[in-house]
Each structure stands twice: as structure tokens, then as C-alpha cells.
Amino acid sequence: MSSPQTLSESERRVVAGWAASCAERVLPLFEASAQDERPRDAIARARAFARGELTAADEIRRRFVAGRAAKVVDAPAAIAAARAAAQSAGVAHMGAHALGAAAYAARAAGLAAPDDPDAVAHEIRWQLSAMTDDVRAALRRLPRVGEDTAGPLGPGLLGTGVLGAIIAELQDGLDPTSSSIQE
To answer: pTM for the whole thing?
Structure first.
């Protein structure tokens, strides 16, 4: 039995492009700290998967490559940016990683602007505005963060703390009529 966090392959392809866009916005934070192509490559692979050019099986085998790039940098924003890229590549394996990519990207934006208390909220607003109706519909099929005990949205890293709070805020904003995210 598959996890409710998986999504169908066609839904994963829809959300992969959005996840790649979220990660790409913070990629310069990583690239300013390291000459390592793994995060950029992960984002390119997420986009290629979204276009149907790569198979889920091939990407499942490569999903951890970009995450290893987080170990070559010390700056917290750069680490979060590398993890955002890795999460975007992980969408081929499980759709819930799209929310992980967005959460790490918002976290990176906040870490890069410690004097701006609205940096994370600004990034979340952009992420929500960048969603197509198809992306919203697919992401609405995922369980709420912390509700499913298995998978990335469960009780682990994405389901708790700052990342869990960011994902909860994104999920609150999936309804286009939601007023939870204000300018």
C-alpha cells in the first residue's frame, strides 16, 4: 500500500516544477558559499522530471545526491538552500517532498535575512502565488503536516519545528480563498 504522501506520478510531475522554482530562488545562497553543482543539478533534474524527461525510478536512486552538498558549507542559509534543492529532486520519489523544498527555501530566505522578521512570510507568499491550480490541487491531496505517521510530513524533521510550521502555513494557504497569508 502506498503512502498518502506519495501522490500519483502525474501529480508528482506537476508539483516537481513548482518545488524546483522554490529551491532555485535560494540557490544563490548556496552557490555564494561553495563551488558545487549538486544542488543546481538536482533542481535541473526536478524540472526534467516535471517535463517527463526522467523516470521516477532513476530519480529515486539519485535523490540523496544534492543533500550531501549541505555538508560542504557552514552557513545555515546555504545548508537550507542545498536541502531545498535535494527536496525538489526527491519529489520524483514522493510528492510530499515538494512541501519540503518550499519549507527549506523559506527557511533559507529567513536565515539569510536575520534582520527581516518578515523574510520567511514573504517567501511563503511568493511560493503560494507561484502555484498553479494543478499544483494546489495536488498538494491539497497530501495529509496535513504531522498527521501521517510515516513519510516526510510525519513526526520527523519536516513535520516538526520551524519546517513543520512553514509547511503548516503553506497548507493553510492552499485554498485560494484563504486569508491566512496576508500581504
So the answer is: 0.93
